[in-house]
Amino acid sequence: MQNNFWFSADKIMKILVSIIILFCNISAFFSQDNPLIIRTKFLPDQLWLDNNGVHLNAHGAGILFHKGIYYMYGEHKLAGETVGKIAVHCYSSVDLYNWKDEGAALMTSDNPNSEISEGCIIERPKVIYNKKTNKFVMWFHLELKNQLRKSGRSGVAVSDKPSGPFEYLHSVRPNAGYWPINVTPEQKASLVEAQKLAGTSFIGSPHPDRAALPFMARDFAGGQMAKDMTLFVDDDGKAYHIFSSEENATLHISELSDDYLSHTGKWARVFEYLWHEAPAICKHDGRYWMLSSNCTGWNPNAARSAVANSIWGPWKDLGNPCTGATPRNHLGPQLTFGGQSTFILPVQGKPGAYIVLFDVWRPENLIASGYVWLPIRFEKNRFSISWLDTWDLSVFKHKN
To answer: What is the distance between the alpha carbons of residues 208 and 360, in angstroms, rounded to a whole number?
Structure first.
């Protein structure tokens, strides 16, 4: 009777060949040429693929850390500027190098009368977690459909899960009927003059004829314009909405309600008529640090940095924090390495470690826009950001 456990030399050879082929396939999968390679480092401004081998589609992003997982929320871009069915895309990661596609966090509405119907513009989504309500709260810059970027509204959505789906609640023009805490008597007295600006169209970039127009008073009754934005939760749980306002001329810092769904009416104007956008903020060694950009549309410019002992200011301008050799894309420190700030991420488990996220905009094909992530180095009275072709979290071995 033939022994079922006996293998001939021919069968053994076939098994060995199969093992060798399998080993070669595994090696090929993890080779540099395979799109699904497991990353172990950051490669700034190189193609960044998700677990499906697709370029990450999360622009103007913010990141939330919750129960051991990082969640990234960003604009889902198409070839053009408007928003399709997916408004905000979500990805998750446990190591910051490799990202899993979690799908749509926020969808546009099929109702043509909805504020977020397909064709609106949704930018710079940020999500924070409210410990009191156990809700995940998303804020974003919203431009209504067919309004040619004149809306300047802030949209709000909530979810019970970090990956969504988020339910759209409403949009607002912030702080209607409230003066900022640093308002002057002259600004209050400008209400009559400001009425002349009603309905006037402006382009949100520096212009000498608009150096001191009373945009804030113009929008006092109906609420302030809110464009490029970020969210920040302080150590005491208080949350703040920081956004470019007044036709991009001045930044506003606004306190959010305890449930993070609305504004309290307490707010301040900072960098008056200095034309900042793309704000990002963090807290380090008890002080508040801000990164922002000039207003040059899709084109890169020199980044700006600032520091304050209080979230309300006064803020001290620190100039361009970018330093170092010109990177391979030839857009060096004076052009923020070709990027524009969107978020400053605290690295969990590494006190004093922060990563700044930049978008590299490609307006001719926005879905192909890239990402530059670089570590921040804090010094006594400033911080710096230097180009690195490749880096990993080991750069944070020593506290800044």
So the answer is: 28
Q: What share of the chain is helix, strand, coil (3-state, %, to 5)?
A: 15, 35, 50
Q: How far is residue 183's CA from residue 250's CA, in Å, rounded to a whole number?
A: 13
Q: What is the pTM of this model?
A: 0.89
Nearest to 240 by CA among 274, 179, 290, 188: 290
Does residue 99 contact residue 56 with C-beta atoms inside 8 Å? yes
User: How many residues can be counted in the chain?
Assistant: 400
Please state, in angstroms and rounded to a whole number, the distance separating the CA atoms of residues 371 and 309.
30
3-state DSSP of 113-179: CCCCECCCEEEEEEEEEECCCCEEEEEEEEECCCCCCCCCEEEEEEECCCCCCCEEEEEECCCCCCC
Alpha-carbon dihedral 99, 48, 347, 301, rounded to 10 degrees: -140
Place 198 in a pLDDT band, splitting at 50, 70 and 90.
confident
At 87-136, the pLDDT tens digits run: 999 999 999 999 999 999 999 999 999 999 999 999 999 999 999 999 99
In the predicted structure, residue 348 carries a pLDDT above the cut 90: yes
Do 46 and 373 touch, CB atoms closer than 8 A?
A: no
Cis peptide before 300 (omega within 30 of 0): no
Q: Are 340 and 329 in contact (CB under 8 A)?
A: no
In sequence order, which residues have a C-beta less than 8 Å from that of residue 153 and are 6 or more positions away?
115, 141, 142, 143, 144, 171, 172, 173, 226
Report the alpha-carbon angle 266-383-362, nearest 5: 80
State residue 202's pLDDT score.
Answer: 83
| 288-307 per-position pLDDT tens digit | 999 999 999 999 999 999 99
**Domains defined for the chain, CATH in brackets:** 49-197+204-396 (2.115.10.20)
Q: Cα–Cα distances in Å, from 15 out to 8, 19, 22, 118, 173?
A: 11, 6, 10, 56, 69
Least Cα distance to 115 among 173, 176, 171 occurs for: 171
State which of 121-130, 199-208, 210-219 shows the largest mean pLDDT. 121-130
